[in-house]
Each structure stands twice: as structure tokens, then as C-alpha cells.
Design brief:
The chain has three helices and no strands. By secondary structure, the protein is mainly α. It has one domain. Helix 1 crosses helix 2, helix 1 packs across helix 3 and helix 2 packs antiparallel against helix 3. The radius of gyration is 16 Å and the shape is flat. The mean pLDDT is 84.
């Protein structure tokens, strides 16, 4: 039982660290991720979508905490934003760990 709980916490933390790190890298390299997608080149659209999908948990958590602190938002709204961020972080962490394990095996098990 404890093994599964520890693994779940690790996957959640990995997903959230991945989201925060990718947000920091995206802000250092280019403009901050947002909901506007550049439509002038196909690779820009794909890269913006991937970055927003990966940085989403960090953006949702940060946004919900900013609204809660500065605008006096309700506690349940902040809790909902943080819960949504945790679920999204778990999913992205699970996907990233599966990708790392697949890449480590050399994509040999892909049929």
C-alpha cells in the first residue's frame, strides 16, 4: 500500500516540477505561455500547444493562488484550482515518466 502511495506522490511531484521547469525555460527563451497561439507557422502552433499542455498545472496553480490572494477569491475556488492542477500534474508526470522509460528501453517494446 505504501509503495503505491509513494509512487503516486513521486509522479505528482515529477509532473509539477516538469511544469514549473518548462514554464521557466519558456519564459527565459521566448514569451510567456498563454492562450494565444501564433498561426504563421505550423511548428510554432505545435510547440505552443505542447508547452501549454506541459506548463498547464503550474499556470493553473499560480493563477488560482494569485486570484485568491489579490482579488479576495473564495477558498473553494482556490482549492478547485489547486486540485485541478494536481490532477493535471499527475497525468503529465505519468506520461513523462512513461516516455522516459520507453526512451530508456530504446523504443524496443513499441510494436
Amino acid at each position: 500500500m505504501w509503495d503505491g502511495l509513494v509512487l503516486s506522490i513521486f509522479v505528482l511531484a515529477f509532473g509539477f516540477v516538469l511544469a514549473g521547469t518548462s514554464d521557466a525555460l519558456w519564459r527565459a527563451i521566448g514569451e510567456p505561455p498563454g492562450v494565444r497561439f501564433p498561426l504563421d507557422a505550423r511548428w510554432k502552433v505545435v510547440s505552443a500547444f505542447v508547452v501549454c499542455a506541459v506548463t498547464g498545472p503550474y499556470l493553473v496553480a499560480r493563477g488560482s493562488l494569485i486570484v485568491w490572494r489579490t482579488r479576495g477569491g473564495s477558498n473553494w475556488l482556490a482549492a478547485f484550482g489547486l486540485a485541478l492542477s494536481m490532477i493535471w500534474s499527475y497525468c503529465s508526470g505519468f506520461f513523462a515518466i512513461q516516455f522516459v522509460l520507453l526512451a530508456r528501453s530504446g523504443f524496443a517494446s513499441v510494436s
